[in-house]
């Protein structure tokens, strides 16, 4: 087993006014996240049964996604995908995550949503596809994997129809 203390990226939510006020968003401590208890992360990914027709490349994508998820997403959404204290939504058993088309989920991870940061500036198409594939196939979620081409398609759509000036994010 791997024992990890994961805290990067989580935030404390207070009563936020309807204006952009990043100074009101503060990092959470380990004590606030998990009561100071180390997070135990199993060595093997907890995914559903092997994907029908999955290739070794698909399995590697999901495994890479697990590693990236633990360092980028788990601090808020937890290693088990169950979210955190009504602050961060559960990804396990979530219809938004397992939607037939992954495009809304891809956009959320690329550009952020609410207090969730945008990952387009820091993760490439392969890394984003890996994280999303891991999330869509873990914790009894049963959705197809996301390919780097899916992420690229969403980025291309955004280039053709740019986002509003209020939330620009340049992809990496």
What does this structure look like?
With 172 residues, this protein is mainly alpha-helical. The chain has one domain (2-160): Orthogonal Bundle (Cytochrome Bc1 Complex, Chain D, domain 2), CATH 1.10.760. The chain has six helices and four strands; from the N terminus they run βββαβααααα. It has helices spanning 30-34, 56-72, 74-77, 103-111, 125-137, 148-160, and strands at residues 2-4, 11-12, 26-27, 39-41. The strands form two sheets. Strands 1-4 form a two-stranded antiparallel sheet. A two-stranded antiparallel sheet has the order 2-3. Helix 2 crosses helix 5 and helix 5 crosses helix 6. The radius of gyration is 16 Å and the shape is globular. Residues 1-50 have low confidence and may be disordered.
CATH topology: Cytochrome Bc1 Complex, Chain D, domain 2
**Proper CATH architecture:** Orthogonal Bundle
Sketch the topology as an H/E string, one letter per element.
Answer: EEEHEHHHHH
| Biggest β-sheet description | 2 strands, antiparallel
Uncertain segments are 1-50
Number of helices: 6
- The CATH class, by name, is Mainly Alpha
How far apart, in Å, are the first and last alpha carbons? Answer: 33 Å
Total E-strand runs: 4
